[in-house]
Design goal:
With 206 residues, the chain is α+β, with helices and mostly antiparallel strands. 40% of the residues lie in helices and 18% in strands. The N and C termini lie far apart (53 Å). The structure holds 2-acetamido-2-deoxy-beta-D-glucopyranose (2 copies). One 2-acetamido-2-deoxy-beta-D-glucopyranose binds next to loops.
């Protein structure tokens, strides 16, 4: 019985931060997400791009996604897979059922400028290099070269967790998303148009 209540509570906590049990609102001591924790700048960097798009909510940090992202970043770092084009398209995906964006940077640059800078550069590559190729009026079938962008701004992916890991010559950034994005048939509903007011910020970021 106790276990059942905990499970119900966890589900409710994801959407509201609170747990409704038999008419009593119980605030859990450690919610599984945090909307202000931003040590790597991952929330700020995602939201600055998401908010350029209409009806697109900001993301929060989901701790379990940080853990799974860290695990896979460490795996990539151990393999130190080369990604000569720097486009992340050569990196193999993990078997996660969540959304996943991958990026490889030069180790030296990430060490010199810091992990937050490294995350910021990857977000810029994912968004700025791909958004301009996205066809908003004919989003399907999806283009094979805009998947990172669409995952970043995907409306129902409102939880994210990113992690960084250093290999011998490369630094890997992994972001995991829930719910996962890039679902066939759902692009129109989940990739909002850029708003007219967002153009000046777009020019600033890209
Ligand atoms: C969320 O993150 C902030 C900033 O790191 C921290 O101060 C705060 O305690 C965290 N809140 C929870 C509920 O973990
Ligand atoms: C978008 O796709 C449609 C259909 O394939 C095409 O007619 C149109 O020219 C495309 N627009 C851009 C900006 O590429």
């Amino acid at each position: 019985m106790v276990l059942l209540l905990v499970a119900v509570c966890f589900t409710a906590t994801l959407s509201t931060g609170k747990c409704q049990t038999q008419g009593t609102v119980v605030t859990t001591s450690t919610p599984p997400f945090n909307c202000s924790a931003d040590d790597l700048g991952q929330i700020t960097e995602h939201n600055k791009f998401r908010l350029l798009h209409e009806k697109t909510a900001p993301v929060c940090l989901l701790h379990s996604l940080v853990s799974s992202a860290q695990k896979y970043a460490d795996t990539l770092a151990k393999l130190n897979i080369e990604d000569p084009q720097g486009t992340a398209r050569k990196l193999p995906h993990s078997s996660t059922n969540d959304g996943e964006n991958l990026c490889a940077m030069k180790l030296r640059s990430c060490k010199r400028n810091g992990e937050a800078w490294c995350v910021k550069m990857c977000l810029k590559i994912w968004y700025c290099a791909e958004e301009k190729h996205y066809n908003y009026s004919h989003p399907e079938p999806p283009s094979p070269i805009t998947g990172h962008f669409t995952q970043v701004v995907w409306k129902s992916s409102d939880m994210v967790g990113c992690a960084v890991s250093h290999g011998s010559t490369k630094t890997y950034v992994v972001c995991h998303y829930s719910w996962r994005g890039n679902i066939d048939g759902k692009y129109k509903a989940n990739v909002g148009m850029k708003t007219a007011e967002s153009q000046s910020n777009y020019d600033l970021y890209c």
